[in-house]
Write a structure and sequence with these properties.
Protein-Tyrosine Phosphatase, Chain A; 8-stranded mixed sheet; 6-stranded mixed sheet
């Protein structure tokens, strides 16, 4: 295989490993095997690694933790998912998204191993390759680097489950991925705690009573060093973390969890107050209670994609008169409990009108199915084939009516591409920062 000479070629190469839905088999061993073939060992064995899992808030927790580490001058590599405009967003080194040239170099360094696995039972998917590239970048940064790795879904079977000595950070666990991981929240929790190792380290937000008992049992059985972040701990931080906490549901919890993980990783005798003051500049992950302006319209972008997240979002919106009577644009992925999410949206009374649509990725609930169910709930609903047409419909309405876009991070990933398509590029990311549409995606035309 010849080396990739351009970013587009490197991206096309990574996506050439796309095979559709993955099996339920563990993915960590596949990534670790490829990593070992590449001579990667530093991040796998390092104690300066945090694996962040949970139902909601993983991306925000990673952002807070990255800012805390960078505030102390630490060298960092951060892996998050999914991305919005560019695959490169998944990987940051020392606070910055990897450049196109860096991405090309990482891909080219892995090509020989990736090609040797293509077509075998050890072939990696693009998501697994993203983890592999992060490990390769971490290896290059050396043993002094700190790694922050967001778990894709679950834990035990996830592609990030390759570390021997990581601190596991656990957000609150709720009802998501139930079918994938056994059908109950308890099974989901067990899957997420599958990241733990014998005598490992866990920092976690206090769970509901049944789940809390399970956490404590697993911690005891594995002799894990555990640090529980209770509501009292969150309140204790109070105004100290306020300057670097995002607006939106659960963000103080996420920030408090990041502070405790930071203490676990950064062994310099800092107090919680020292940690909070070190927060510095935190980069909000895209699509987390994110406000954008398009002309005279205010858009709120939120990647809430399961019932607990949608419930938290609409509780926040209902308490702020600014969002009353908003226009809504929603799409959902097939594997999610989209009926419950639509019920929550309808019960909130926030939207005066709703447009249901589909993301360009091939996982969306058909818009006709969404529209039929929304009508049954008494919502005033219209249907559009993609986000671009949905925006054309809503932006043409009253200029003082806010627009809320939610239900799927994959839908939010279509925003800037849609604005460019509509001739509204001045309100969007630059076209050269948006990855080309892949063959397995739908198009805007």
């Amino acid at each position: 295989m010849r080396p990739c000479g351009t970013y587009e070629a490197a991206l096309e190469y990574v996506y050439s490993f796309f095979r559709g839905p993955l099996s339920a088999a563990p993915r960590g061993p596949l990534v670790r095997y490829a990593a070992e073939r590449l001579g990667i060992s530093v991040p796998i064995r390092s104690r300066r690694v945090a694996s962040i899992t949970g139902t909601n808030g993983k991306g925000s927790t990673c952002a807070y933790l990255e800012a805390l580490l960078r505030g102390q001058g630490a060298t960092t590599v951060v892996l998050t998912s999914p991305h919005t405009n560019s695959f490169r967003e998944r990987l940051r080194t020392n606070g910055d998204v990897v450049s196109k040239d860096e991405f090309i170099d990482l891909v080219n360094s892995a090509i020989v191993v990736l090609e040797s696995l293509r077509g075998t039972d050890r072939q990696l998917s693009p998501t697994m390759i993203a983890v592999l590239l992060a490990l390769l970048a971490h290896e290059r940064l050396g043993s002094e680097a700190y790694g922050v790795y967001e778990v894709g879904s679950g834990g035990k079977r996830d592609a990030t489950n390759v570390f021997e000595n990581a601190t596991v950070g656990l957000n609150v666990v709720g009802a998501d991925h139930l079918t994938e991981f056994g059908g109950t929240v308890i099974e989901v929790l067990n899957e997420k705690l599958g990241l733990l190792r014998w005598r490992g380290r866990l920092v976690y937000l206090e769970q509901s009573v049944p789940l809390q008992n399970i956490v404590e049992t697993i911690v005891r059985d594995l002799k894990v060093s555990a640090d529980r972040v209770s509501p009292d701990h969150v309140a204790e931080l109070g105004d100290l973390i306020a300057p670097f906490v995002f607006n939106g549901p659960g963000q103080r919890d996420n920030a408090a969890l990041a502070c405790r993980i930071f203490e676990s990783l950064y062994l310099r005798g800092l107090t919680m107050h020292d940690v909070a003051r070190a927060g510095g500049c935190v980069r909000r992950p895209p699509g987390r209670f994110e406000r954008r302006c398009v002309g005279n319209h205010t858009l709120l972008l939120d990647g809430a994609h399961n019932p607990p997240a949608i419930d938290g979002l609409f509780r926040c919106l209902a308490m702020d008169p600014f969002w009353a009577g908003s226009s809504g644009i929603v799409a959902f992925s097939k594997e999610k409990d989209w009926q419950s999410m639509l019920r929550i949206i309808a019960a909130s009374g926030v939207f005066s009108s709703l447009v249901v649509t589909e993301a360009l990725r091939p996982r969306a609930v058909p818009r006709r199915e969404l529209a039929e169910f929304a009508l049954q709930l008494g919502l005033r609903v219209e249907s559009s084939r993609n986000l671009a047409t949905a925006l054309r419909m809503t932006l043409g309405a009253s200029a003082d009516r806010p627009i809320v876009i939610c239900g799927s991070l994959l839908l939010l990933a279509d925003l800037d591409r849609s604005l460019q398509h509509l001739g509204l590029g001045e309100w969007a990311a630059a076209a050269d920062q948006i990855d080309p549409i892949q063959p397995w995606m739908s198009d805007l035309v």
